[in-house]
Amino acid sequence: MAKEELKGLEDLPLVGGLFKGLGKLIDLAEKVEEAGGEIKRKGEIKGLGGETKGIYGFSIRTGIGERPKIQTFGNIRPVKKETGKRKIKITETREPIVDVFNEKDHVLVVAELPGVSEDSIKLEIKGDILTMEAGDEKRKYKKEILLPAKVDFEQRETNFKNGVLEIKMKKIWPPLSK
Asked: Which fold has domain 96-178?
């Protein structure tokens, strides 16, 4: 499953080569599946002219008995052109790494937001989608997160330390039907 998700990204300019060698990395991730673990890689693409800097990375996480999960982050987004050839778009806003933990009585969201102040963090919820925005003139982050359960957003507990935001929200019963 994880390898198929990467197939369509191999022809992207500048970052396509990164994905071509990822098959071996996914094989490695599957080997550590029994013990559980995580593999992260990130980098910058320079030489794009002006002040533009491309940031791109990925995290491959496995759990005991689970399939590897790939999460990308950064400010490089694939876009499709009319010709069918894929290109990339570098945006000012980065997508942070976010983990969502579906616990027994609450949902815990942990986001990596390095370089921003706690004052700049804005959280909003619509249905089961949590929108997170943070940043200043140097760094901006935005991500929409699908929550696994209905939560009491007004009674949330937040903690921000060393660029890591934790949001703990109690579940509302009955749970959302899937």
From this structure: Immunoglobulin-like (2.60.40)
